[in-house]
Amino acid sequence: MPAKGKHRRPKSQRFARSIAVAGTGGAALALPFMGATGAHAATPQSVSEKAVQSLPVSQKSAEKTAAKKDAAKTSTVRVYSVRAGDYLSKIADEQNVSGGWKKLYADNRSVIGDDPSLIHPGLKLSIGKKARTSAPKTESSASSSSSKAKKTEKKAQKAESKSSSKSTAATQSSATTSSSGYTLPVTGATIGTAYRVAGSMWSSGYHTGVDFVVPTGTSLKAVGAGTVVSAGWGGAYGNQVVIKLNDGYYAQYAHLSQLSVSAGQTVTEGQQIGLSGATGNVTGPHLHFEIRTTPDYGSDVDPVAYLRSKGVAVG
């Protein structure tokens, strides 16, 4: 029928025909087809580029957040002023320093110096320095409350212990103090090497003081009121303290493990001036104690006779 001959073929057939032509070597048709493929491929590539470009922005945001957190943590640093009788392990314990006295010393080495035992009253120490390097806390609120309760309990125990120690110290002081205002340099100690014992181990040929046999860490006291002439390293004497007493004589304490006073400081009878130890040229822990007419080596007098002349009983 004529009408049927005028019907157009569907476009899909035409498209199929053009593909067939391209497959038979129609370069003109193949090139546009490839170009279309390339145009479609540009879409995922552009998305990838955008993702790469946006990455530094997120990194900067993360860095800013981290910097703010660091600043907040750093602001928790406290300054502690050393008091008489303090030593690093004691401060670290009382101030709850994570890492103990070694961490405290490492954070304040530029202030303290090469010897961690040589701290003195008035020295400023940073507590909580470099806190940003510590691990984040992951405790629950319940465990946090438990931790706070334990800390409170520890502080109460320490306060009770300090009160008991002060009471004991007061009792011991009253037992060794004379009416003249003088006392023993250390309580409850026996004398090891006496004064003037001859021997080649001493440069003068004899022992210039007396040795009180005490373990490391024993509290040492000013035998009388006076002024600290020197406090620091004394060569063979190790850490030493020399005090000019009010009567003009000088008291020397040697081989200390810890100093509690500094040069120029005034002290009272019975006040702690340091802790015994085994620094310098020694074979074991003890207190080497001298009484001198000058602050210098070689001006020694019998320390036992001196203390007895002040009404102090020496065993």
What does this 3D model show about the protein?
- The strands form three sheets. Strands 3, 4, 6, 7, 8, 10, 12 and 13 form an eight-stranded antiparallel beta sheet that branches. A three-stranded antiparallel beta sheet has the order 5-11-9, with no helix packed on it. A two-stranded antiparallel ribbon has the order 1-2.
- 40% of the residues lie in helices and 17% in strands.
- The radius of gyration is 41 Å and the shape is elongated.
- The model is unreliable at 15-52, 131-143 and 163-176 (pLDDT under 50).
- 24% of the residues are buried.
- The protein folds into three domains: 1-53, no CATH class; 78-133, LysM domain (Membrane-bound Lytic Murein Transglycosylase D, Chain A); 190-309, Glucose Permease (Domain IIA) (Distorted Sandwich).
- It contains eight helices and 13 strands.
- By secondary structure, it is an alpha+beta fold.
Summarize the structure.
Helix content is 40%, strand content 17%.
Can you tag this structure with a few keywords?
Membrane-bound Lytic Murein Transglycosylase D, Chain A; Glucose Permease (Domain IIA); 315 residues; alpha+beta; eight-stranded antiparallel beta sheet; elongated; three-stranded antiparallel beta sheet; 8 helices; 3 domains
